Amino acid sequence: MMMEVRYAGHKSYAGFTRLVFETDSAGPAGFKINLDEAGRRVVFYPVDGLLALTFAPVPSVDGLVRGVDFVQEGYAKRGIVIKLGQEAGGVRASRLTSPDTLVLDIYAKSGPKPFLPYGRTVRTVAIDPGHGGAAVKPDGTGGMAEGDLTLDIALRVRKLLTDAGYRVVLTRDKDVAVTPDVRAGIANAARADVFVSIHAGGSFGPMREQAAVLTMDAGELGTKSGPSAWPDQNAPYLPDSIDLAAAVSGSLSKLYGERPEVRQTRLAGVQGLAMPAVVVEAGSLGGSTEGGALAEDAFHDRFARHLAVGISSYARGGE
Ligand SMILES: [Zn+2]
After folding, report:
1. Ranges of each domain in the chain
2. N or C: which end of the chain has fewer CB within 10 A?
3. pLDDT above 90 coverage of the chain, percent
4. What tens digit of pLDDT does each residue of 26-58 get?
């Protein structure tokens, strides 16, 4: 099986460099990463199958990564070679879908400590209560507007995380309408390390009535549709968003009895965020008995606790 690999770019961070490759398929199941020549060279190759590397060698990236090249092993098996300007402390690979993308994070040995996989630098958490300021509210017993529910949960999460030592910023703390761009602006201005949006509308098609944790679909980044006027700056955070989604989904499984689905989808409100971001759907409020349970204080309390645990678990490296 042959996987075509195209170099898509890099971004330099304090302590690590991220290299992004686009691939034409999910590719072979297994990869091997070798850090050789005393930590001065990374070789990445499939255990089975071939890579068709269509990019030209990249001559220079930054102080840590001096260049990206490829190697021929035997007749055909090719691997990606990353030449290092200083000793690397580790490499982390992540896969994304639609489009199929391979992300390699190269960590410096000296300088700021790599924060993965032994714990991340998460000091500030942005909590985004979805909706708010709705002119029309459901009336009758058990009826609760989605924006009231998300705000009540968000206030509880803020207290839990603040007590645990995090700085928490809310994109709204009362029943007002806030545009997606203003929400992104609040989180970016606060230099939040993660962004967690809370919803309960079941408004994501097949997941109606179900809890789910959503991350941005890489294939939707850079598209002009959607309400955001912000440039697409969420792309570098996608691998961490997926880790965050997994941590939150894992924690919420103790509330729901099964893991809420993690799905990549179009999230216009996320593309302007300069941090890992997830949208958590608590389920559907819409008129069902389940909706009645969702409106209860006890549910808000339990949901908030499991969400806070999921965020802390991500911050500690996902254990
Ligand atoms: Zn919603």
Report:
1. 2-108, 124-315
2. C
3. 29
4. 655 567 788 876 778 888 877 776 777 777 778
Whole-number Å distance, alpha carbon 201 to ligand 1 midpoint, is 4
CATH number for the segment(s) 124-315: 3.40.630.40
Which residues in 207-257 belong to E strands, given as ranges? 212-216
CATH number of 2-108: 2.60.40.3500
Distance 77 CA to ligand 1 centre (A): 48
Query: What pLDDT digit, counting tens, does each position of 48-85 carry?
Result: 767 777 777 787 788 888 888 887 665 555 688 898 88
* 31-36: strand order across its sheet: 31-36, 41-46, 77-84, 65-73
Q: Quote the ligand 1 centre to 3 CA distance (angstroms).
A: 38
For residue 166, the CA-to-ligand 1 centroid distance in Å is: 25
Across 238-259, b (16+ Cβ under 10 Å) vs e yields bbbbbbbbbbbbbbbeebeeee
pLDDT at position 202 is: 54
Expressed in angstroms and rounded, the spacing between residue 171 Cα and the centre of ligand 1 is 14
Separation of CA 203 and ligand 1 centre (Å): 6
Distance 249 CA to ligand 1 centre (A): 18
